[in-house]
Amino acid sequence: MSGFPLIGARAAHPRYGELRQVTPHAAVLLADNPSPMTLDGTNTWLLKAPDAEEYVVIDPGPLDEAHLERIASFGPIAEILLTHGHPDHSEGARQFAELVNAPVRALDPTFTYGSEGLVDGDVITSAGLELRVLGTPGHTSDSLCFVIDGEAVLTGDTVLGRGTTIVAHPDGKLGDYLESLRLLAELPENTAVLPGHGPELADAGEAARMYLAHRRLRLEQVRRAVEDLGGAPTPRQVVEVVYADVDRVLWPAAEWSVRAQLEYLRTGY
């Protein structure tokens, strides 16, 4: 999907390893792990008020020692938060926590280290900021977003800066994902999207509404494909019809989403 409004005129990411200030309270450091699934790489976000000494780090990213040491070089770290547990966001978290002597907090207790976990509705007061935790399951069951009120929402893989995300079936559920998008669509106008991959976007509500429209279109395409293929096709057969215009390297990931779509058509969830 294209057409998302970007912040300012600069759509491209900075070179790997350069910290770039995006909003008054958020800067991004791009990990050097590009792939068809991670786009340019994983965005590690460093958050703090202008007069604060410590940062909050969102998604340290892969187990890349150079990237982790670079994050640490910008100053003391108060807390490490995870949007979800996929390795491109979380694999380096434990080593980074030990490097900077800071706790890791996440919804899934598997990834929590040295502190309590997170749940929907929590308010994190750290680095001179208040971050509101939104439970946004769908991409995964443990997906969270973090809201800096009046400024931005950090979306992990729930909303990307370019293209659309997958519903990682069976852990991810399409019904959950649609509800999460509706929640994001209600954020105040001009709340920026600071995503886990791709460039930042200017308006979370607009991006979420475009995602919802895309999901409705894909779901109708899957419904028609099921009928045309005789009523009981395999997920791969549906992918070959619905995602025929998508690079085949992405078909295995598309199959996850198709499985979620087929389950939604069967169960409403």
Automatic annotation (TrEMBL):
PANTHER family: ENDORIBONUCLEASE LACTB2 (PTHR23131:SF0). This is MBL fold metallo-hydrolase. Pfam families: Lactamase_B (PF00753), WHD_BLACT (PF17778). Residues 41-197 form the Metallo-beta-lactamase domain.
